[in-house]
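Quick note —
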Amino acid sequence: MQTLASLVQSTADFLFVPILVIVLFGTGLFLTVRLGGVQFRRFGDAVRTFFARESGATGGALSPFQAFMTALGATIGTGNIAGVATGVVSGGPGVLFWIWCYGFFATAIKFCEAVLGLTFREAAGRETVRSGPMYYLRDGLRSPALAMTYAAVAGIAALTTTPFTQTNSIALVMNSEVGVPLWMTGVAIGVLTWLVIIGGIKSIGKAAEKLTPLKVGLYLAGGLFVIVSFAARLPDVLAMVFREAFTTQSALGFGMFTAIRYGLARGLYANEAGYGTAAVAYGTARSDRAVQQGLNAVMETFIVSFGTCTLTALTILLTGAWTSGQTSTAAVGLAFDAAMPGFGGYVVALCVFLFGYTTLIGWAYYGEKFLEYWLGARVVMPYRWIYCLLIPLGALTRVDLVWAWGDLMNALQIFPNLIGVVALSGIAAAIGRERLRSDV
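Predicted structure written out below.
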């Protein structure tokens, strides 16, 4: 199993460094210029759209707020805790800088995905909504072959990564902090996921609307408490983050290229810009305002890259948990316990559960839409059952193999999507110049 994990990781490394560094940063830089710096030029508008009212549009299954919370809930998963912590432990403090750097440029990518998702969706009332990169690749780029390629790769990725990565992290922290057996956590999560996704997107939207604000608020409060408790170390830690991000020969044994590799991989996994999932989530909104959905995507990426990911990295750096020998959620639990002895680990356990659970239900819908485009509507119900049955297996899978496979599938998924995003960026740029209507 270790040999397999090494093989998968080496393949992912080949794609991530330097190919994806060039592709992702290049695309993010190009779109930032093409969109006129939408992520900072219209940040105020993005804040205004945060709780926007419905537009009264007939197409769409979810309210704009539910669509936003579904996207945010699916994006803020255990990768924001376990993935970032693993990245910092493996790649050093400089990883955080490259997460920030990618997060800034990734915002432009996600804006485009959300805008194109709503622009090229197929919506028939409030019951049938089909959205995602497949539709702007097919109808906008007029490339059915590329659309089918994306659907196949993304569908396989959703089915073979999310049930494993999210469940693995939940099971690990429940075992280390609460003593729950791995298999028991897996079975419980599988049942809870089935109870929501069997009802389709409306059921998922209702769950995300309630759970996502809870999980984000709880984690932000706990993380800020840790940071304040160790605030005296903050200047030194921040200096170390910037120093290790650019040092080719580090005294800590990491170096710039290692930091870039893990920063990009964990940043990509955490904010999902480039995946195309934003097009699926925001395309479900009962809205005819593509600019509104794009600005919601700006807020989503900001919250992820500069909120939850930053809190995870800073807590383990400030407390020294990153050098403890622990990794993944166990390292974050150790960090929270340093500030809240006997209690912090339970906060992390609850946050990891909420993070992983909302991501599982959100990605279940994404995978369903990808595979439905590829194989037809007959696949929907079998897919929902198979997805839930795979979840218990994720609790028992080796963590190194889980994340290596996730890195590889992430890399393969983004290439067809980015072709469409770049080619159709003129449409997104035109929409990005639209003024918000007064009723937003």
